[in-house]
Amino acid sequence: MPDKDISGTGGSLLEHLESFRWTLLWSLGAVCVCAVPGIIFIPGLLLKYVRYVCPPGMSMHYFTPFEPLIVQLELGFFAGVILALPFILYKIAEFVVPGLYQHERRWVFFFLLSSLILTATGAALALGVVIPIVMQFSNSFAADALQPVIGLAAFLHFSALLAGGFALIFELPVALLLAIRFGVISVETLRSKRPLIIVALFFFAAILTPPDVVSQLLMGVPGWILFELTLLIGSRIALKEECQGQERLLPIARAERREPEDEEYNTAVSDSAAAVPAEPYIDDMIYRSAARKKRKIRHL
């Protein structure tokens, strides 16, 4: 039994699975290739970053013989994913886009690009601004009898958690706009739930950030601003969709509002048309048009 066409693009199920397999292989190959320069340059970048985030007098430590090597390999793989991410998104779009309509393709490219930019912005804000503040806050507890001993692996895992939290917060507009665009949720519902969503944002920020007000505000306030921008853009999207829907329904509404033709006139015309040859006359066309519109005309 032949495989059915599941996408309407002319391919069978096995062909789509084969295409998806090659998409995964190309993505994995790109990550492996990009991980090589990441592993090579990570040690120098890691030392510079530790000097950047640590206050004067604070240093990192490692507690197992191979901890620095494992950390370098993990960071190299992570760098490979980051460097290969544009290519991965391109391959995913290349797989998905042929089964979409033209207007859906524009939305896919818009959301992929905005998602990439917002994720990078959130991670950069966490790594470049928030983590140095966190390290300053941690160093404020140091005293002569209390010295910080921070492990390199634990510090990097904490940094990754914080950067991921910021990236997730900055992805909120993309997720909400997708939900608004495809009718999962409305802008009015989001407006009615605004206080609850804002409280949830700051609660999420309080969980992911250390217990200092500055870092919590640095995560919560941008999330609040992005949520308000989402409401603004979502209102425009909903208004545009409503206008387009009205334009599509306007011919149907006009047809429904059109008054029925005069049955008496049609009967008379049909009786007189039986006695004359079936040739188009100007007078007859004028009378027909006038009867449909129910207007008074002067005889020619």
Q: Any chance you could write out the topology, listing elements then pairs?
A:
Elements: H1 13-53, E1 60-61, H2 67-96, H3 102-139, E2 150-151, H4 152-170, H5 172-181, H6 187-192, H7 194-208, H8 213-257, H9 263-273, H10 282-293
Parallel strand pairs: 1-2
Task: Characterise the protein shown here.
The protein has 300 residues and is mostly helical. The chain folds into two domains: 7-147, no CATH class; 171-258, no CATH class. It contains ten helices and two strands, in the order αβααβααααααα. It has helices at 13-53, 67-96, 102-139, 152-170, 172-181, 187-192, 194-208, 213-257, 263-273, 282-293; strands at residues 60-61, 150-151. Strands 1-2 form a two-stranded parallel ribbon. α3 (102-139) crosses α4 (152-170) and α3 runs antiparallel to α8 (213-257). Mean pLDDT is 75; it is low at 1-10, 259-263, 272-285 and 291-300.
Protein traits:
single chain, 300 residues, mainly alpha, 2 domains, 76% helix, flat, disordered N terminus
Largest sheet: 2 strands, parallel
Quick one: how many beta strands? Answer: 2
The helix-and-strand class reads mainly alpha
Distance between the termini: 72 Å
Strand percentage: under 5%
Number of discrete domains: 2
Low-confidence stretches: 1-10, 259-263, 272-285, 291-300
What's the mean pLDDT score? 75
The largest beta-sheet arranges its strands as 1-2
Give the overall form. Answer: flat
Helicity range: over 70%
What value does the Rg take, in angstroms?
33 Å
Order of helices and strands: HEHHEHHHHHHH
Number of helices: 10
